[in-house]
Amino acid sequence: MTSFSDQRPPRLLVVRNDKLGDFMLAWPALAGLKAATPRPHVSVLVPDYTAPLARACPWVDEVILDPGDGAGREARCALLARLKAEPFDALLTLFSTPRIGWLGWRAGIPLRLAPATKWAQLFYNRRIPQRRSRSEKPEYVYNLELAEALVDALGLSPPPRPAPPYWPLSAAERAAQRDAIAASLGLETACPWLFLHAGSGGSAVNLTAEAYATLARDVDARLRATGEAPAWVLTAGPGEEGHAEALAATLREAGLAAHRLPPSPGLEAFSRRLAAADLFIAGSTGPLHIAACLNRPTAGFYPSRRSATPLRWQTCNAEDRRLAFCPPDDAHEADMTAIDLDDAAARIARQLQPSPISEPHS
């Protein structure tokens, strides 16, 4: 095994090349790798869509674009040539596919580690049994365990497990984000801001717009009863802007102070704006997991099927900052109408109640 040092740090390639939320749940693992001794050089292989956040990640040194399964021969060969040219010591694949396993093997990366699932594991010389299909742990914990196995396999000194926030922004930057949004929308910075993302990104089972409107009205009334008049900020993903504006209009008609988040110049800028939220409400989508990486309080709505439970897709913010809601045991796993919205509103309102240790809204 190569002897690593500060002068010869290990060079790692980490692959998480699927959806945005999946990539955000890899940040704890990336933080863990980066804290090992000697401090590794960490590259990530990601699709173009998540690349802006990979470049913003404080635990990533280099971003390599994955052209995807449908790429032509020229793009595939260019990627293979690049991986061969870089002296990677290890490949860590957080979500294993045959194409990526074959790619790492062809690139000659000496240590290749992945979950021991599917026939793609044949391309790896370190395989870690995890049984992720049982959904017994959060996804980010499964990722952390793989990172810890890699640290051990390389003979590095393991760090303590990292703690939130996994995307640490300064208080000054958060204040600047609030000031910019306040100036754009005419909001008071002293009142609680609830960000609401009603879109699903085309994958997550979510509440309907009508259910989110009911929830928001209830939360708003509960907060106003305590003397807090909140501001609602509606966010949207690509192609969801019209739905977000319609929901904002519905809330305004009900007397709520509802606004659309101003358009952002890109995914990183949008993500940084989420640092301004006092609480972020959404289904199990990419933006929910971005807010969690920023350690903002979150309220997530999930189906109860095994592959998508609140435990499996738990947000990676601090435990006292996350709420999760799903259908009860006696309802169909994807029946989001069975979620008790009255209970959810009460818990969300309590989460926003000031306490001696609460950070100020500003």
UniProtKB/TrEMBL annotation:
Keywords: Glycosyltransferase, Transferase. It holds the Pfam family Glyco_transf_9. CDD domains: GT9_LPS_heptosyltransferase (cd03789). It comes from the Bacteria. One of its GO terms (cellular component) is cytosol. GO terms for biological process: lipopolysaccharide core region biosynthetic process. GO terms for molecular function: ADP-heptose-lipopolysaccharide heptosyltransferase activity. PANTHER family: GLYCOSYLTRANSFERASE HI_0523-RELATED, TETRAACYLDISACCHARIDE 4'-KINASE-RELATED. This is ADP-heptose:LPS heptosyltransferase. It comes from Halomonas stenophila.
